[in-house]
Structure formats: C-alpha cells, structure tokens
Specification:
Elements: E1 8-9, E2 12-13, H1 15-43, H2 50-54, H3 64-87, H4 91-113, H5 120-146
Antiparallel strand pairs: 1-2
Length: 157
C-alpha cells in the first residue's frame, strides 16, 4: 500500500494515515539496522546482539560491538531516506517523520539500557544520521515530485 498521499485529509488531521506511516518508518529503520549489524558482525566476527541496536553506553570504537553500532546507524540513514520516499513522499513531512523516528529510538534505547545516553559519540552518530536521512529524504521526495507527469495526448481525426 502507498501511504504517502496526504497527512492532512479533507477533514483535517488523519491519524489513521499518520500512525501506519510512523510504524512503517520505525519498522524499516530497525529491519535495516538489524540487518546491517548482522552483516557488519560477520566481517568483524562479532555475534549479533541487541546491545548493538539499543545500548546507549556507546564508546568510540572501544570494541567491535561499538564500531558495528556506530557504522550501522550511519549506513542506515541513506537507506532510511528511501523508506521515507515510499512511505511519506512529501518533502515537508520528511523532517517530522525523521525526528519522530529518532525520538522513538531514543525512548526505546533509554528503556533498554535503563539509562539516558551520555556518550557524545552516541549523540553524534544519531544526529549525523538524522541529518543525512532528512536531507537525502527531502531531496529524493522533491525529485519524485518534480518528475514530468505524462500527459495523454488526444488526437482528433
């Protein structure tokens, strides 16, 4: 299904559209993050772990787990931009959905770790990821909107 039609329907704000979009963006993010963690873990001989996805006590390349977590978050950003194009499709909404995804991820990470992220590298990776995903997502959505719409030519006989 294509969710990217409108956030505001004729009747106003439509949560029946917004909530599936948020869920879709979040699920896409975690699927991508999980698959990247597994892939990078194979290269560095590190078993996959939820710590790679949700631990807020990230240290700057302290071990393979930290490196995998940092690189996975950064590589997931451009991939997430493609999810935004499909699920949201409007450039004006990309920042809203990206920040919402980040805030939900922050809450889940805090709940998992029972701590608030104090590591500067955790914040740096996530904010850089947010910026990359927002800029690329907006760019891709604008490009999609600017595609020439094919017109039907009516010929008279």
């Amino acid at each position: 299904p294509y969710f990217g039609t409108r956030m505001l329907d004729i009747t106003g704000w439509d949560p029946r559209l917004i909530i599936p979009q948020i869920v879709g963006v979040q699920v896409g993010f975690y699927l991508c993050l999980g698959l990247l963690s597994i892939l990078f873990g194979m290269f560095f001989d590190a078993p996959p772990s939820l710590h790679q996805l949700f631990d807020v006590r990230l240290r700057f390349f302290q071990d393979a787990q930290s490196g995998i977590a940092m690189v996975s978050v950064l590589v997931a950003a451009p991939i997430g931009a493609f999810f935004l194009v499909y699920l949201v499709s409007r450039p004006k909404k990309v920042l809203d959905f990206t920040v919402t995804k980040f805030l939900i991820h922050l809450v889940i990470c805090c709940a998992y770790s029972s701590a608030f992220p104090l590591s500067w590298i955790w914040w740096l990776c996530n904010i850089v990821s947010l910026i990359i995903e927002t800029l690329l997502g907006e760019y891709l959505c604008v490009r999609r909107e600017m595609k020439k719409i094919p017109s039907l030519s009516v010929t008279t006989v």
